[in-house]
Amino acid sequence: MTQAHMPARSATAARSTAETNINIAITLDGTGQGEAATGLPFFDHMLSQLGRHGGFDLRVDAQGDLEIDAHHTVEDVGILLGSCFAEALGDKAGVRRFASIAVPLDEAVVEAVVDLSGRPFLHYEVSPPGEKILSDPPFDPQLCEEFWRAFATSAALTLHIVLVRGRNTHHIIEASFKAVARALRDAVRVEGVGIPSTKGVL
Question: What single string gives the DSSP state of each residue in 122-164?
Fold first, then answer.
């Protein structure tokens, strides 16, 4: 069965806690329509990049305790997005599984390597200069590691994100989201029929 004739690989999910209330919908074989409303404009922009460059249709609505800080919102979006991604991916029959890419944004270059392994693991080697990104409210780039760890854990995949070079924090973080998006786009592509593992399951 070719990807064009497959049922839609889609999922929706909701998650409510004392700290956040989140709804997410994703279609892996989409048109790159990414929309996000989290109360964090820079984070919304990054999530939109994830949808656009991943070729996913992605909608994220989140309300969190931003009066405390952004940590709960960013991490909880990662948790729910990862579980939605895993549900949409299904049994992974025929997927490429492995993918890697290096993506530039001006002076910044970030490499992303993905394995749809079923084994949650994150290696995050990204150290931007440290200043917050001046949106309203300002965004702490250190939260991106928490987002990717939550995503990789909930999606049960192996993810390496490595900064090759860069000086501008915005460029570094945006290049990392675009790199992961492109790697995921390649990894989920259907090019066969069987499970790509000698174990017979991922």
Answer: EEEE-----PPB-SSS-B-TTHHHHHHHHHHHHHT-EEEEEEE
pTM above 0.85, yes or no: yes
pLDDT tens string for the chain (202 positions)? 444 556 789 999 999 999 999 999 999 999 999 999 999 999 999 999 999 999 999 999 999 999 999 999 999 999 999 999 999 999 999 999 999 999 999 999 999 999 999 999 999 999 988 778 988 899 999 999 999 999 999 999 999 999 999 999 999 999 999 999 999 999 999 998 777 666 777 6
- Residue 94: partners with Cβ closer than 8 Å, 6 or more residues away: 1, 190, 191, 192, 193, 194, 196
For residue 154, give the nearest of 202, 82, 73 by alpha carbon: 82
Element at 81 (helix H, strand E):
helix 71-89
| Angstrom distance (rounded) from CA 163 to CA 130 | 14
Which tokens hold the place of 188? 């989920």
Give 158's contacts (C-beta < 8 A, 6+ positions apart).
113, 114, 115, 117, 119, 120, 121, 152
Name the one residue in this structure whose structure tokens are 């952004």: 70
Largest Cα span, the chain: 49
At 55, which amino acid appears? G
